[in-house]
Each structure stands twice: as C-alpha cells, then as structure tokens.
C-alpha cells in the first residue's frame, strides 16, 4: 500500500472551532465529556447503519420517519484499494468518510449533509466516495495508515493513495463542499491557519489553534514547534493554553503517533500536577483509565475513573464520561451503569444519559431494561433519527430474548 505522507504540503486539517469537537477514535480517546445525545466514543455492540442506496426504488434522499437515512451520495461498495483503482480509471479523487456508529457528528454528516442532493451531485462529479467504519473490517488498518485522530474525518486521496488533505469534524453542506473544493484544487487548508497565525504573531490562541491542527494532521514536527511557542507565551496557564498543549502532546503525539502508553500516562499525570484545576486535568483521568485498561490493569483504570468522579460528584457530565468509558472500553459495565443511573438522578431529562443506560443495560444482559431506557431517551429527543434507529435495535433485541 502507498504510504501516508504526514507532511504539511500534503496533509490539511480543518477544525472549525480550533478545538477538538469531533469524536476521538478508540485509539485516540474522546476529546471531552459528553452531555448531549448521543455522544460517544463500542466495538461489536451494534452494527453501524449502512449507507442507504440513493437509487433504491421509491426512496428519495433524506431522513425517514423511522430514522433511517437515505444518502444522496453514491457510496462505493468495496475496499479502499478497489476504490483507488476505480478513481484512477475514472480520473477522480477518492473521498473517504471515516466514522463510527456512535459518533454524533458522524450522524449529523449522514443526516444533514450526505442526504442533500447538491452534496451527492458534487461528490459524484469528482470523487469515488467510500464510507469506512473505523471499528470494523479494514477500518482499524485505514485509521492507522492515515493517522486518523478523531471522527468524523473526511480524507481526500489521490488515486495513488497519497492524502491531499482532510476535514475533521462536522461541517454544514456549503462549508464542506467549499473545503473539499480547496483540497481538490490542491489548496492546503492549514495554509489558512498558518497565514492567520503569521498575521498575528503575538496571538497565542491562534498559535495554539495552528498547533492543534498540525497535531490532528499528524504533522508532528510542526505541531511540536508551535506547541513550544505556545508554552513560552503561556507558561503559567493563565490563558488556559499550556494545559491544552500538554493534553494534546500526551494524546495525539505520545499515545497516537508513538504508541507509548506508559509515557502518555506519565504526561497526563504531570498535567494534573501542574494544572490541577484545568479542564484538561479532569479529562485526563478518563484518558489514563483508557490506557490502563488497554494494558489489562482494570482495577487501576476504574480507580482513575472513580478519582475523576470524586472531583465533582454532582457533575452529570462526569457521570456521562464514566459511562462512556465503561461502555466503549467494555470495562466493568455494572459499575458504569451504577454511575450513569446516579447521573440520571442528577439530570433526569438528559437523553444522552438514558441512551448510555440502554447500552450498559444491554452490556449487562438486560435487554428489557435496555429497551426501557432507550425509549425514555427517544421520548426526550423525539426528533433524533439515531434514537429512532436505536429504539428499533433494542426492541428487536428484547423481542429475540423474550422469544
């Protein structure tokens, strides 16, 4: 396979807010606690909804009353290598939508963007489009090959397999098409962030946004250089940037790029010592738990999550993060369910917590409880297409168990 070239000239990362708002991959973890529905980032828990065939009889692109999505994009069904070969024959680029079934910005892309006729026509004219579930099939290999840091990531590839650039996180239809046009024409989205930073050299926040974008694009040397500059500008974390830099380094560079779990844990712990009151220090407990769980240190992982919860037991967002950890990492789901139920007691109208309760009930072999919780989540957010699909999934599971 052609190698990925993580150089600034080839890799572009577009982050609309300058901060990670997409879903972190299984190897990258999550960017922040999730309080909205449905949020995170489980393997083998449920199948990702298939990209519907826009040419199916009597099906117009859009979201149906049952929550099913009919895509306007003519998705290629096959491997990446087959898509690359077709792109070469058709003189097109390859668009790869990398996501996961649980990822809310991925749902938004499916429901609000890829269902639009104009988007389908635009993509069809210039790209062979391939959807990849990062947790199934060739997804993990592709995620590693292109250093995918968060979901959704839309990769734009040459027919040779070399990456021209990427768009990270959800963008509305017009903005996504504009970003793809720039990438398709050879434009480097990072150049915009570079120009903005150069125009305001004393703006540490713009420097951080640039460094963060470099990190998401796996442009290690550039990220390290800019991060060093940010630390000089904010040595005491008075701007809240130093803690972000330490967090990004531990997560994206030491963990994702270097795969050094112990070193990443040590960096997260150092962050907690230096800036104990920062949001990143609190988020680090969950990341430490993930890395410990990967090493089979389950008791230590749970202890880290318990320490996170102890920082503010009345914060329903921490209960949500704990639940996502148990669900995604398949780590002590009974304990995760207990914590989520405590969170529901704090925020009974939090649909995301009820969805988590459903997943954790399912993980503890309680299909009836899972269905009840899922129905409550859907009742709280009746317009959620994803929740409608999940009600059907849990209804089918409960019916199969009863039968």
Account of the 3D structure:
The structure is a single chain. The chain has 403 residues and is α+β, with helices and mostly antiparallel strands. It has a domain of 165 residues: 3-Layer(aba) Sandwich (Glutaredoxin), CATH 3.40.30. Helices cover 55% and strands 8% of the residues. A four-stranded mixed sheet has the order 5-4-7-8, with helices on both faces. A two-stranded antiparallel ribbon has the order 1-6. The chain has a two-stranded antiparallel sheet with strand order 2-3. A hairpin with a 5-residue loop joins strand 7 and strand 8. Helix 6 packs antiparallel against helix 7.
CATH structural architecture of the domain at 23-187: 3-Layer(aba) Sandwich
Q: What characterizes the major β-sheet? A: 4 strands, mixed
Low-confidence stretches: 1-21, 25-57
What order do the strands of the largest sheet run in, or round the barrel if closed?
Answer: 5-4-7-8
Oligomer category: single chain
> Considering DSSP H and I runs of 4 or more, what fraction of the residues is helical?
40-55%
How does the helix and strand content classify structurally? alpha+beta
Number of strands: 8
Global shape: globular
> What is the third-level CATH name, the topology of the domain at 23-187?
Glutaredoxin
CATH class of the domain at 23-187: Alpha Beta
Q: What's the gyration radius in Å?
A: 21 Å
Order of helices and strands: EEEHEHHEHEEEHHHHHHHHHHHHH
Average residue pLDDT: 85
**Terminal CA distance:** 47 Å
Strand content: 5-15%
The number of helical elements comes to: 17
């Amino acid at each position: 396979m052609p190698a990925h070239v993580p150089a600034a000239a080839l890799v572009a990362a577009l982050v609309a807010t300058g901060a990670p708002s997409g879903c972190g991959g299984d190897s990258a973890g999550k960017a922040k606690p999730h309080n909205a529905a449905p949020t995170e980032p489980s393997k083998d828990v449920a199948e990702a909804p298939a990209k519907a065939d826009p040419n199916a009889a009597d099906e117009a692109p859009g979201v149906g009353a049952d929550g099913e999505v009919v895509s306007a994009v003519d998705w290629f069904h096959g491997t990446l290598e087959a898509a690359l070969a077709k792109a070469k024959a058709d003189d097109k680029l390859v668009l790869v939508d990398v996501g996961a079934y649980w990822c809310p910005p991925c749902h938004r892309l499916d429901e609000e963007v890829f269902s639009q006729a104009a988007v389908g026509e635009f993509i069809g004219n210039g790209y062979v489009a391939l959807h990849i579930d990062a947790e199934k099939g060739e997804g993990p290999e592709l995620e590693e090959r292109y250093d995918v840091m968060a979901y959704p990531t839309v990769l734009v590839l040459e027919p040779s397999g070399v990456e021209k650039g990427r768009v990270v996180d959800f963008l509305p239809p017009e903005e996504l098409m504009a970003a793809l046009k720039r990438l398709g024409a050879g434009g480097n989205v990072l150049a915009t962030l570079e120009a903005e930073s150069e125009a305001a050299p004393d703006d540490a926040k713009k420097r951080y946004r640039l460094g963060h974008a470099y990190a998401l694009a796996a442009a290690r040397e550039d990220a390290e250089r800019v991060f060093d500059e940010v630390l000089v500008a904010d040595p005491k974390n008075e701007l809240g940037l130093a803690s972000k830099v330490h967090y990004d380094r531990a997560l994206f560079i030491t963990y994702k790029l270097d795969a050094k779990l112990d070193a990443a844990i040590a960096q997260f712990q150092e962050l907690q010592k230096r800036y104990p009151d920062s949001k990143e220090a609190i988020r680090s407990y969950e990341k430490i738990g993930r890395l410990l769980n990967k090493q089979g240190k389950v008791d230590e992982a749970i202890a880290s999550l318990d320490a996170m919860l102890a920082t503010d037991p009345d914060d329903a967002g921490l209960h949500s993060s704990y639940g996502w950890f148990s669900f995604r990492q398949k780590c002590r789901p009974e304990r995760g369910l207990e914590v989520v139920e405590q969170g529901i007691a704090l925020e009974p109208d939090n649909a995301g917590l009820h969805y988590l309760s459903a997943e954790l009930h399912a993980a503890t072999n309680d299909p009836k409880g899972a269905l009840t919780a899922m129905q409550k989540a859907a009742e709280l957010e009746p317009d959620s297409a994803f929740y409608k699909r999940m009600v059907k999934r849990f209804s089918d599971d409960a019916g199969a168990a009863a039968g």
